[in-house]
Predict the 3D structure of the following.
Amino acid sequence: MAIGLYIHVPFCLKKCSYCDFISYPYDAALAESYVYALEKEMAFYAGNLSGGQRAAKSVYLGGGTPTVLSGDQLAKILRISRSCFNIPDNAEITVECNPGTVDREKLEKLRKAGFNRVSIGVQAYQQNLMSVLGRVHSWQEVLTCVRNSREAGFNNINFDLIFGIPGQTMRDWKETLDRVLELSPQHMSTYNLKIEPDTPLHRDVTSGYLLPCDEELELDMYWYTVDYLTNGGFMHYEISNFALPGREAVHNLIYWRNEEYLGLGPAAHSMVEGCRFNNVKSVETYIRRLQSGETAVDETLSLSQAEQMSESVFLGLRMIEGLDLEAFERRFGRSVFQVFSEQIRALQALGLIETAERHLKLTKKAIPVANEVFAEFI
Ligand code: SF4
């Protein structure tokens, strides 16, 4: 089966205050060495996965901020991917970008190179909330980025948005949704802000400098989003994701269906042939290892069938339509009701899961406590 290819670009212009992803300040020389190391890593996997050169139905350049690299570097990464993996013409090829890091010329170069989807980190409309997040771009730059993307030929655009920001009101969130819908995206990812330990935002909240958003307000924002976007023609297809019909993210569906994906670059995670593995986090170590002919893999975990079944259930339950019961049985040779009978009975009795149209799915009541439901299957 075709895999999803994820390429982690670990550079940003400036660290956002809530961010705990692996990203480093952009440095031209380091970035050049990183692209060279990535080339070596791709060549390694081209020759070392079972079944020969693997097909990839999606390529996703995430970060970090991939678009801090030059258009030529990004085009080169895609060109090398094509030479190492069998990527069909209709594959979804996404690049994440932050406003202010792309101009029309770079976007045209990316489109011409074969990228066909752009995911823009918009986050919020109000400048004061962007400052709380430590984001560097303005709304004007969002507008310019969207216009340039369209003019460059991108007709599949995602916006990442964040709600539950300290100081954010319901009115702010509604205004953000209104403003972004005016820009006609095909897909929207709306994430509830998680304040991660060891981030500047965490320090601001624990010191009392900022007040965290009230949990009930976060829930109201969530359900408002669901109503507003579904009334606006979007399908709510995963807990945090919405798409116009036919524009669901191919790459993300690979994760939620627990299919195979290969992650390249520092800190990237993979799930191939029943094995989960991740690369070293440090970009310098990543480069050094590949330059000296070693792999960048740091940890490998071979998953038992029981673990693979658990993962398939809790990932599948993230999708609003739920876990495909027939696909589960085809893959594991057993029905999910045989394997998890106790958990399913208990959760059904609590009104947290249900079956519908050959799927096992969360009920509406379960969505706010989804993580607790998932934990039952681990
Ligand atoms: S742009 Fe994204 S990856 Fe980069 S620092 Fe901000 S949140 Fe982190």
The chain has a mean pLDDT of 96. The two ends are 26 Å apart (CA to CA). Residues 343 and 376 are 6 Å apart (CA to CA). The chain has two domains: 3-256, 305-375.
